[in-house]
Design brief:
Elements lengths: L18 H11 L19 H19 L11 H8 L7 H9 L17 H19 L4 H20 L12 E7 L5 E8 L5 E5 L5 E7 L5 E3 L7 H6 L7 E2 L5 E2 L3 E4 L2 E4 L8 E2 L12 E5 L4 E8 L10 E9 L4 E10 L3 E2 L3 E2 L17 E4 L3 E3 L1 E2 L2 E2 L4 E2 L11 E2 L12 E5 L8 E8 L4 E7 L3 E5 L23 E5 L14 E2 L5 E11 L5
Antiparallel strand pairs: 1-2, 2-3, 3-4, 4-5, 6-16, 7-10, 8-9, 11-12, 12-13, 13-14, 14-29, 15-28, 17-22, 17-24, 18-21, 18-23, 19-20, 23-26, 24-25, 25-29, 26-27
């Protein structure tokens, strides 16, 4: 046999025991007939019985890994190694890289018409088999042996594709995907929780953002009921806090300053003269470490906010846990500790549209809030008064459409409601109904207040997943919270967290449907 020199193609080289593997795959992946004139020394394959058996073995193994190992989460861990054998430049892409490498001449797929009975998976198998023919011919196998091998593989392929397609939603577990890269090179992931009712919640570790909540309507149709993006770059480019964890202090602090234990703290003013949602780089723009809890169908996001960040005192350790239950509840548990007295007010800033169509406004949504009082504002800062809602556009003690009186308070609702029974722990504080879809959202919390915001400042400059402009009143927020500007309002519930204390609070968004008969 002719001696084989080191190849200028890096994946051809490697440990001696992998040489045969690399030779065979080089012939398969690179369409050897195109390269044998340029690098003849590489493709001097031995035609012994051992090589023949090795070639057949590799065909079977590659097929096995492509269709079976990659489908099993317990065996998928072998994918990066197999991908390295196939293509040293793609070892981090797992079996998706492996599969795409096996199907070497994709141009063929542009020239084949596939009948409606064939799924994409079936079509890939056809291309795979065509490539096997190419490789077998290259190995100078006789027609009978080639036909026998292909017959077996075609039968296996047919049996595989006759089986019902596995719906990813039926596989269970938490799905993790690559979502993007932050400016400092940190990889960002997207996690999807699913339950038995078909509900899905996707959350990213950038800002702890809830990117989507998919729930059924009264006819069983699954639609996304929150505003968000599929493209991480849109989040990086800036957005109005879609689905984000907001903090350290959600909502506004007047003048960007507060006094605590005799010390005055100056904060960035990023909303006119006021401080909003934690500042210029609040928690919504931070990378959160994620810990998955498969058995609980939950994810905990953790972040250490250093002393002085955005002007706030104390090293603050924060955990936010999202749990999806079989009762279609998205439960959010907040936990935090500090080594120095500080103020803290965490919330989730999801924008809801229960119609599932972000081009429709939410003015027809019926809203009930269990609050007899609200906090009047001047320039969106509370005056300190706790005023009754009775006889005002803020009276949602009985169900009323959001749009019924919105013209009386232009440009819309952006107000804190003083919830009843503040010492009762987690209780139902609001219900929203979209009659056409039948979707209902109940909100539970142990917080003393909730901010109703009706997307007043959405002006079409931000686009949705379908690249359609997001207009005013496209969604509403129900942000559970301490009251706005509490650090400067002694008559409001205290938002101070001291060393040795724990900040613990829970908010639940539960989704259900009502029929036309109810």
């Amino acid at each position: 046999m002719t001696a084989v020199t080191e190849s200028p193609l890096p994946f051809i080289n490697g440990p001696p025991r992998l040489k045969l593997v690399n030779w065979f795959l080089a012939a398969h992946l690179l369409n050897a007939k195109r390269y044998d004139k340029r690098y003849p020394q590489i493709f001097q394959l031995p035609q012994s019985a051992k090589t023949f058996k090795a070639g057949i073995f590799l065909i079977i193994i590659s097929y096995f890994f492509k269709h079976f190992v990659n489908a099993n989460p317990k065996t998928k861990i072998f994918c990066p190694y197999l991908s390295f054998i196939y293509d040293g430049n793609n070892q981090n892409k797992g079996c998706k890289s492996l599969s795409s490498s096996i199907i070497s001449f994709k141009i063929f797929s542009e020239q084949v018409t596939v009948t409606s009975r064939l799924s994409i998976k079936s079509f890939e198998n056809i291309i795979f088999l065509v490539n096997l023919i190419k490789s077998l011919i290259f190995m100078k196998m006789d027609f009978k042996k080639t036909a026998a091998i292909l017959t077996v593989l075609i039968i296996v392929t047919g049996l595989t594709n006759c089986a019902p397609e596995q719906n990813p939603a039926d596989e269970g577990g938490i799905v993790t995907e690559e979502f993007g890269v932050m400016d400092d090179g940190t990889d960002v992931s997207l996690y999807t929780l699913r339950n038995d009712d078909g509900m899905e919640v996707s959350i990213t570790n950038y800002g702890g953002i809830v990117t989507s909540i998919v729930v059924p309507d009264k006819d069983g149709n699954l639609e996304d009921v929150v505003l968000g993006f599929d493209d991480f770059e849109k989040y990086k480019a800036g957005h109005p806090y879609f689905g984000a964890i907001t903090g350290r202090y959600a909502n506004r602090i007047a003048g960007g300053r507060f006094e605590l234990n005799g010390d005055v703290y100056e904060l960035p003013t990023n909303d006119g003269e006021n401080h909003l949602h934690g500042g210029v780089e609040g928690f919504d723009k931070k990378f959160w470490e994620a810990e998955l809890h498969e058995e609980e169908n939950a994810i905990t996001f953790s972040y250490l906010s250093p002393d002085g960040e955005e002007g706030y005192p104390g090293n603050l350790e924060v955990d936010v846990t999202y749990t999806l239950t079989d009762e279609n509840e998205l439960q959010i548990d907040y936990y935090a500790t500090t080594d120095k007295s500080t103020v803290l007010n965490l919330t989730n800033h999801s924008y809801f549209n229960l119609s599932g169509d972000p081009t429709q406004d939410i003015l027809d949504h019926q809203l009930m809030i269990n609050a007899d009082r609200y906090t009047p504002v001047e320039n969106l800062i509370p005056t300190g008064e706790l005023a009754p809602v009775e006889g005002t556009p803020f009276d949602f003690t009985e169900p009323e459409t959001i749009g019924a009186r919105i013209d009386e308070i232009p440009p819309g609702y952006d107000h804190n409601f003083v919830l009843n029974n503040p010492d009762a722990g987690v209780r139902k504080i609001a219900t929203v109904l979209h009659e056409e879809s039948g979707r209902v959202m109940d909100v539970y919390t142990d917080k003393p207040g909730v901010q109703l915001y009706t997307g007043n400042f959405l002006d079409g400059t931000v686009t949705n997943r379908q690249d359609q402009p997001i207009e005013q009143y496209a969604a509403f927020c129900l942000e559970t919270q301490y009251f706005p500007d509490s650090p400067n309002q002694p008559g409001f519930p205290s938002a101070v967290l001291n060393p040795g204390e724990t900040y613990e609070t829970t908010t639940i968004y539960q989704f259900k449907v009502v029929s036309d008969d109810e």
